[in-house]
Write a structure and sequence with these properties.
The protein is mostly helical. It contains three helices and no strands. Helix 1 packs across helix 2.
């Protein structure tokens, strides 16, 4: 499914040039750019959340303890030789 949207002439020219360089469609370039932006937003939000957590020493200590309690949880009781 597609829809139409307006973009400024500069953005259109950039999309056109990138599409030509990559031998793909402008829609594909735009879709990739939007996905990259979405992922970057997620990374930025996660980084901000960790920064806020680290800024609270008590909360960070609790988080570290919780993470430590999970250490080895994925080994299902296997030793290094069994893995």
């Amino acid at each position: 499914m597609t829809t139409m949207m307006r973009v400024d002439t500069n953005s259109h020219a950039i999309l056109r040039d990138l599409a030509a360089q990559q031998h793909t469609s402008m829609q594909d370039v735009l879709a990739r750019a939007v996905e990259a932006y979405r992922r970057q937003q997620l990374i930025d939000a996660t980084s901000a959340a960790y920064a806020a957590l680290r800024a609270n020493p008590e909360a960070w200590k609790h988080y570290q303890a919780e993470i430590a309690s999970l250490d080895g949880a994925l080994t299902d009781g296997l030793t290094a030789a069994q893995e």
